Amino acid sequence: MWNKLTGDNFRRGISQVKNHLSVGYGHARRFATKVDQGVDFTKRLFSVLAPVIDSLGGGNLNRKAIQGLGAYEKAKAAVVDADEKGKQELSQFVGHLRSAVPEIGL
User: How far apart are CA 35 and CA 33, in angstroms?
Assistant: First the structure.
């Protein structure tokens, strides 16, 4: 009886941790989507304003803006790659855990 109680508690704990991580991941993903939408809006706005800024002598501002957008794209690519790699590793880990310890009910 004690083993079943301990196993039930462990399963409940795993379920709660999984739920918290899922909710946190969802919030982070929605936040990142909003940031990406804002950057996309900024890019479109900048593409219209860049010639005007350049004609007013703001060539340095244009270069800095382009550098900043390039840095954002690099960071975005790194985050997307890390997300994909993390999903793969988590899937492998859960698969190994599921086969090694079936009692926890993953």
Answer: 5
pTM of the model: 0.71
Are residues 106 and 98 in contact, defined by beta-carbon separation less than 8 angstroms?
Answer: yes
- Summarised one tens digit per residue, pLDDT across range 43-81 is 999 999 888 888 888 778 888 988 999 999 999 999 999
12-33 CB burial, b ≥16 within 10 A, e <16: eeeeeeeeeeeeeeeeeeeeee
Can you tell me the distance from the alpha carbon of 106 to that of 60, in angstroms, rounded to the nearest whole number? Answer: 56
The pLDDT value recorded for residue 2 is 55
DSSP 30-81: HHHHHHHHHHHHHHHHHHHHHHHHHHTT-HHHHHHHHHHHHHHHHHHHHHHH
For the chain, the average pLDDT equals 87
Query: Which pLDDT value is given to residue 1?
Result: 47
Q: Which residues contact 103 (CB under 8 A, 6 or more apart)?
A: 7
